[in-house]
Amino acid sequence: MKNKMRGILAIIKKEFARFFLDRRMLLNTLIVPGLLIYVVYTLMGTIVSDIAGTGDSYTAAVRNMSAYIAPAFEQSEVFEITSATESDEYYTGQVRNGEIDIYVVFPDDFDDIVGEVIEGSPSSVTIPNVEIYFNSSEDSSSTAYSAFVATLDVFEGSISNVFDINAGEADYDLSTTSPTSYILSAIVPMVLLVLLFSGCMAVAPESIAGEKERGTFATMLVTPVRRSHIAVGKIVSLSCISLLSGISSFLGLILSLPNLMQGVFDVVDLSVFSAGHYLMILGVMLATVLLLVAIISCISALAKSVKEANSYIGPLNIIVIVVGLLSSFVGSSASPLLYLIPLYNSAMLVTDVMALTVTPLNFVITLVSNIVYACIFVFLLTRMFNSEKIMFNK
Predict the structure, then answer these.
(1) CA distance 295 to 235
(2) What is the distance between the alpha carbons of residues 219 and 213, in angstroms, rounded to a whole number?
(3) Which residues of 291-328 are buried (b: 16+ CB within 10 A; e: fewer)?
(4) 294 and 187, same structural domain?
């Protein structure tokens, strides 16, 4: 019995020593995951807080504000209300351009009809219609619309069904963005990045760390082929394979959208996107795959086995997902400098393409910057191939 316990304790001691004395494994297993999650969630919380902001207020231009409803808004800090004195076209244009959140029009006889109902002697059979113009492509406008309607519903519930809201035939949603592009700009960036990353993960670690593990990489390094050529050949071939995988997944995503969105939108109209939009996405996919393959190859070159390489690459998967989510939260950016941030620029550009707000300048910046970053990692991979310590784990 004592011999068995000694054997078990010896194995436990050996495994503990292998784990705790390996600085890379210790760092990657115990420190990096918790630190990365803390940093990522902190950043996400800060960004969401800035976007949603509990102290935010909404701007509303109101024509013929009701004396019965005005006190409810005066006591609230949610709305900054101005009296409408210009034409309807002026204020609807401001809503469309995002200069104000909503434009509200009360009928001229609104207070007369409500007063008669409150006094219990309604003389009119006409139900007044309150018109609220909003822009569904702007989060603040959609939220302001919901908040204003909720306030009106509370007031109406305190008396009776006196008025309607947006019951006319006018188009009260002033958004110039189609429902299709709006929903795709929220979904596609993150999904596409994850699909591209998955394709790169499927081939890159096996090609670098796998060959090191099997001992075939050492044979390749002693051939007359220059190590820089080996690095470039690896990156190009792996990128082509990963890109084909990404294109296949992207086509499956696009073609499945009508089924995915059934019940949400009556029609998913992909005709809003031109051939140029799809070519831009293809270009971004190619540059992103080059960058991802180069990064994953460099990480794989540090590992002794495919399993170890996958453990090193794991945190990158979290970063890819978060980057995709942030692009959906933040939306299009007015600053071209943000399109210099690797991976994030790809997600932002896909968001712009899906939202039909892409500009040639941002496309060029994204494409060129990602290719430059990929070249830097290819150069780094070449230097790693020249290091006997790294390639032969000395």
Answers:
(1) 10
(2) 12
(3) bbbbbbbbbbbbbebbebbbbbbebbeebbebbbbbbb
(4) yes
How many CA atoms does the CB half-sphere of 160 hold within 13 Å?
12
For 341-371, the pLDDT digits (tens) are 898 889 888 888 887 778 889 999 999 999 9
Q: Record the pTM.
A: 0.61
Number of domains comprising the chain: 2
- Last residue of a domain, which of 115, 131, 165? 165
- Alpha carbon of residue 234 to chain centroid: 30
Is the pLDDT confidence value at 227 over 80? Answer: no
Give the closest residue to 272 by CA, choosing from 160, 197, 182, 380.
182
50, part of any domain: no
Tokens of 184: 């795709």
Within-domain flag for 53: no
> Residue 110: how many CB atoms within 10 A of its CB?
21
Token pair recorded at residue 238: 């792996």
Helices (H) then strands (E): counts for the chain: 16, 5
Residues 282/273, Cβ–Cβ less than 8 Å? no
Other CB atoms within 10 A of residue 72 CB: 14
Residues 151 and 70: their CA atoms lie apart, in Å, by 11
When pLDDT is averaged across residues 175-199 and rounded to a whole number, the result is 74
Amino acid occupying residue 301: A
Summarised one tens digit per residue, pLDDT across range 110-121 is 888 877 777 666
**Does residue 243 share a domain with residue 153?**
no
Q: How many Cα atoms within 13 Å fall on the side-chain side of residue 157?
A: 6
pLDDT of residue 242: 76
Residue 20 lies in a domain: no
Assess whether 160 and 189 both reside in one domain.
no
CA dihedral 106, 109, 112, 115 (to 10 degrees): -30
